[in-house]
Q: What sequence folds into this?
């Protein structure tokens, strides 16, 4: 998933940012994000980038130069906002259960699950930057969340619920996820996904649980509001 801002910016490389990326992820996050409330889950707080932050304007090439993968953790994506809203409004979906938040990013969905009474919450993301982002965001919201960098795709997981926000944006990735999600479902795991109409959402073995109109940024999406559905794999 690529933002228009990353693709179109001509902002020059910044040595100060490069130094902080190489040495201190927490400092970098503090300097390049602000504490914000995602529009669809305003009761939660996250360190997020906006148009006012230099991070928002950097191209993917510039991010690579300073040693930073595309910072998905710095944005509250529509699928994650919708899924977090569902979990907070339907606490029975996670309350007292072991939860894994797959491709956690900012930790938004994991935080919602913890707030909704999950017994344990494990955020999983292979991006090394997300661990710091999730830890900082969990602290903002007063919850405890575990973290793993392990690539869980295709593996059995010790969980009752797997949550995944906005993961069907790439064909190759979706081709890996769908059979894994189906296998987990067949093993008794409740697999819930939040999706704002991405191209590679599967067409079968899904049940719609809720639909939301989620406010997003035009710099990230093709409209200011994305119709976002929470689905359960069958």
A:
């Amino acid at each position: 998933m690529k933002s228009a801002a990353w693709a179109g910016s001509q902002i020059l490389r910044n040595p100060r940012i490069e130094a902080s990326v190489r040495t201190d992820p927490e400092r970098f996050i503090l300097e390049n994000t602000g504490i914000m409330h995602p529009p669809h889950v305003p009761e939660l707080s996250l360190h997020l980038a906006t148009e006012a932050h230099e991070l928002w304007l950097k191209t993917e090439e510039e991010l690579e130069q300073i040693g930073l993968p595309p910072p998905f953790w710095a944005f509250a994506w529509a699928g994650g906002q919708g899924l977090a809203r569902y979990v907070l409004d339907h606490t029975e979906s996670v309350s007292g259960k072991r939860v894994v938040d797959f491709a956690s990013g900012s930790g938004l969905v994991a935080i919602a699950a913890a707030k909704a009474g999950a017994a344990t919450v494990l955020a999983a993301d292979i991006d090394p930057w997300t661990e710091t982002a999730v830890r900082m965001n969990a602290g903002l919201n007063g919850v405890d969340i575990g973290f793993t960098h392990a690539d869980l795709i295709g593996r059995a997981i010790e969980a009752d619920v797997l949550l995944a926000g906005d993961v069907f944006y790439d064909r190759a990735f979706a081709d890996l996820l769908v059979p894994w999600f189906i296998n987990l479902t067949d093993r008794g795991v409740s697999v819930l996904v939040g999706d704002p109409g991405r191209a590679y959402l599967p067409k079968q073995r899904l049940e719609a649980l809720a639909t939301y109109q989620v406010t997003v940024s035009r710099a990230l999406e093709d409209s200011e509001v994305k119709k976002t559905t929470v689905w359960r794999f069958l």
Remarks:
- The longest helix spans residues 171-186.
- DSSP finds nine helices and nine strands in the chain.
- The longest strand covers residues 206-215.
